[in-house]
Amino acid sequence: MPLARLVPNQITYNAAISACEKGCQWQLAVQLLSLMPEAGVVPNQISFSAAISACSKGGEWQLNLLSLMAEVGVVRNEITYNAAISACEKGGQWQLALSLLSQMPDAKVVPDKITYNAAISACEKGYQWELALNLLSVMPQARVMPDEITYNAAMSACEKGGEWQLALHLMSLMPEARVVPDHITYSAAISACEKGQLALNLLSRMPEARLMPDKITYSAAISACEKGYEWELALNLLIRMPQARVVSDEINYSSTISACEKCGRWQLALNLLCLLPEARLVPNEIIYNAAISACEKVGEWQLAMNLLGLIHKVRLEPDEISYSAAISACEKGGQWQLALNLLCLMPEAKVVPSQITYNAAISACEKGGQWQMALNLISLMPEVRVVPNEITYNAAISACERATSGSWH
Questions:
Q1: Residue 145 lies in a domain
Q2: Which contiguous run of DSSP H or E holds residue 288?
Q3: Which of 246, 257, 297, 331 is most buried by its number of CB atoms within 10 A?
Q4: Total domains, the chain
Q5: What is the domain extent for residue 43?
Q6: Cβ atoms of residues 330 and 301 within 8 Å
Q7: Which helix (H) or strand (E) holds 366?
């Protein structure tokens, strides 16, 4: 701009800071704000609000900028506070968001709907469902009416806290408050459900509210069925998706396979895995892990091993869950050598064994009468910073008892 003999003014700086905010460049936004006085341009509320909004990933820069406003004589208003609280919400800083909200009365700034929505959303992201509900309850006192965004954030907070009854109760209060539930409301309520039947009931109510279930609501319902060990309902929903003109994805298949795995329906889990290419979907690690776990539950160690091999073939990286499930399948199938071989391969694959991995391997040794191996594995656990638990010691003791009882015959 100086080359074109144009001097940047307040409007151009504000536009540039806003561009940085949209481009997630918080350092540049702060730098531009700091350059304004040098250029003889006085920052205003818009300048600070845009810079504060950009600072969602900038630690405590929001607070520093708010303090700076007072120093340079710019009055903080609800826009700047809302920008700061929203930045805290995006950055997962619920304590800071609540601290800023509590400071507003002293600064003679009245919180509005945006303020409360951002603060409730910050609590939701921080798994603070009680605080989220408390904020919702004080809104009428502050003469601020909640909207669907408020209720959705509060319901999501309840869902994350496992408080499904509270989430459904909030949804039931919406008509009284003259708030119309939307897709997000139903998705949050369905996600909160721990029983598939409840989720299905909510899904069936959507057309009455002139809302058609979409991919998010179907995904939430299938996930609820998985949580509730209701494989038939999960499968039924997956089948219904094409009829409802909703395209299924890897998440839907993963949840359905996991529901089948939890209920011991390993053949169904494998059938679903085979159907993925037909649906033009590529299996990911989560899907393979669910299928391996399904085989593990019924001791189908050969199939579990084949699936683990397939993960490598399709250029995916097996993780701790993949190995633990395969080792556990070998343990159930009485294949202690294979279990130990898999455990030995883990460091090579840059996968750190967990307590579950070691417990499965020690149990495999116990079943195979390999008490020395079992004790050796326990001695190796501290080296890899894995703490033995009751299951670990019980498996090792059982291995020693078997060896002792065998020596008496």
A1: no
A2: helix 285-297
A3: 257
A4: 1
A5: 1-110
A6: yes
A7: helix 355-367
